Amino acid sequence: VSTQSTGLFFSLKMKLFVWLGLLSLLLASCNSLTIKNVERKIDLTTQISRQTLTFTVENAGSLFDFPVQSHQHSLLSSISAHGSDGKTLTVTKAERKDAGGFNLYNIQLAGNNEFSVEVAYTHTMSPHPAEIEQTAPQFVKYSDNLYVFSLYPSKSQRTTVKLASAVVDSFTEVEPVSQKGDTIEYGPYEDVPALANKDLNIHFQNHASFLTVSHVIRDFEISHWGNLAVEEHYKIVHSGAKHIGPFSRWTHFTMTRQGQALPSVLKIDEKLPLGASEIYYRDEIGNISSSHVSQTEDATLLELVPRYPLLGGWSIGFYLGYNLPLGEAVSRSYSTYVLNVSLAPHIEDVVFDHLEIRVIMPEGSRNFEVFAPTEPASKSTSKVFTYLDVSGRPVQVIEFKNVVFRPNDFLQVTYQFSSFNLFFEPILLLVGYFSLFIFAILFVRLDFLFGQTRKSEKLARIESQLDEAKGLYEELKEHFEQLEEAFEKRTNLKINDKQYNEERDTVKKQTGTLLKKLGEVASEIGKVDEASAERVRKLRTLAESRQTAQLSLYQTELVERKSLRKDLYEAKKNKFTTDLKAAVEDSSRLFAELSD
User: Fold this and answer.
1) Quick check: 151 and 36 in contact, CB under 8 A?
2) Half-sphere exposure of 1 (CA within 13 A, CB side)
3) Helical H runs in 492-529?
């Protein structure tokens, strides 16, 4: 047993020595990488700090560890790398966080000894002073590391800082250093050790627009009938030096006309897709006074002009929307669809502190996948109900922090959708209409009234129609009286023959219409109660007789009186007078019976 234990111990000891030897070789190979030269260019012409670092390395392996100091990592917006041939290199964030207080990004070198790394930081420039008056210039303070922070030693380093202006109040001076206008050059610094750190501070004038979108919500509603509806809700603030004191529009106008730069935002330009149509915008307080839309070769340019220029600390809120042909943003492979849209709105040199994207899928979509150029802060799924939805439309909600627009940053959302679901809503609509028509037919044709209820409805219907008939007869009586008044005026020579004839013809036309309606009412009553209908018909006949007798009597009095013999005239007059009297009495009696 003792011999066996000794052999086992010796075997484990030998394996341990082998593993330690391999680990030492691996560490030695990693530590052998040396940066021969690094050129860093820092662009501070806007509110975004963009850095391009060009590395030339020796003894390069397959990976290059790029560290970002912890106090800068929260301000990091994007990072990318390219080889000397221009091809994009893969950049992934390492899981570990070193004790030195930095985050690591692994760059796949793919055999490149020369490569460049592009990084963008936000909120690295702070206004100093923090508050200014309207006519005062805006100065900012920028802080960074004088050296390129690296895990590897560097034989040579050089840094070039491009400022927004040549007005520099102060800057860190570590020889060799030189300033030429709006450019400051540091280095070259020789034999810089790994993890070298020294403060770099620059205090300079920067009138760039410090426009910050504190929160933007982008809604993409997909309709497989051929449309993509896009709506964007903005909350924007000018994050430069806060304005204090009064604001004078005249001072702002004169300084602008004289070409003096001011730290204010006069307009907001956003590039929309070329196929954007039906563009609209709204804001709660009407601060956006005008807009303009124009087209370039590859985009639609939307220009929004606030009623007042945005000074430091001022904010604005609005939303805009447009429609886009579905084929410009969604591609298809069998039952799988891919939505491909820009990650951030195309507004140059703007910082998006909180970007929320909501993709509203068609009802029945499934198997969602999201692909983004940067890691989302959060992802979630919800549902929204619109017209004719049964189970609701799935909504993919993706949120990002600290984003700047980059032309090649796209968000892709893949999903599966069956063509049958496209016709579900039209079929549902047809079934609904068909069911409604069937119900209406059954409701009209079937009798749901029984016993006394049916009888009461019949009496109510007869009473309603009799009231209508009585109302028509009352109108007829008014026209007969109007005709009688016209006859008396003609007899008393208050009107001439032409005026009398015009009034007579008007009365005849109106009474003709009323008599026709009275006949129609009698026909309707006949469908329910024939006895009541017969009395209405008789009332109509008596009204016609009254009109005929009245017109004949007036014709005899006004025209035939002069041409007829006296005895014939008297005979016709007496006949028409008797007929008129009988018609009036009979119709009045029958009308009273209908009222009872």
Assistant:
1) no
2) 0
3) 497-526
**For the purposes of burial, counting CB atoms within 10 Å of the CB of 231, is it exposed (0-12), middle (13-18) or buried (19 or more)?**
middle
User: At CA 81, angle to CA 77 and CA 86, rounded to 5?
Assistant: 135
Report the chain's C-alpha Rg in angstroms.
47
Question: For 136, what's the count of Cα atoms within 13 Å in the CB-facing half-sphere?
Answer: 18
Query: What are the tens digits of pLDDT across the range 383-398?
Result: 988 877 778 889 999 9
DSSP assignment of 320-389 equals EEEEEEGGGTEEEETTEEEEEEESS-B-TT-EEEEEEEEEEPPTT-EEEEEE-SS--SEEEEEEE--TT-
Task: List the structure tokens of 159.
Answer: 């840094």
Token representation of residue 402: 């600290």
Take residue 253 and report the two structure tokens written for it.
Answer: 């106008």
Q: How many CA atoms lie within 13 A of 503 on its CB side?
A: 18
Angle between helices 452-491 and 497-526 (to 10 degrees): 170
Output the six-digit token pair for 347.
């507004």
CA-CA distances (angstroms) from residue 512 to 320, 349, 503, 535, 590? 62, 81, 14, 19, 20
Cβ neighbours of residue 148 closer than 8 Å, sequence gap 6 or more: 38, 40, 53, 154, 157, 159, 192
Pairwise CA distance, residues 179 & 184, whole Å? 4
pLDDT tens digits along 540-592: 888 888 888 888 888 888 877 777 788 888 888 888 888 888 888 888 888 78
DSSP state of 310: B
Contacts of 341 (CB under 8 A, 6+ apart): 220, 329, 410, 411
3-class SS of residue 485: helix
- Between the CA of residue 60 and those of 38, 91, 119, 147, 194, what are the distances in Å? 14, 16, 21, 21, 16
Give the number of C-alpha atoms closer than 13 A to the C-alpha of residue 41, restricted to the C-beta side: 9
* DSSP states of 249-264: HHHHHHHHHTT---S-
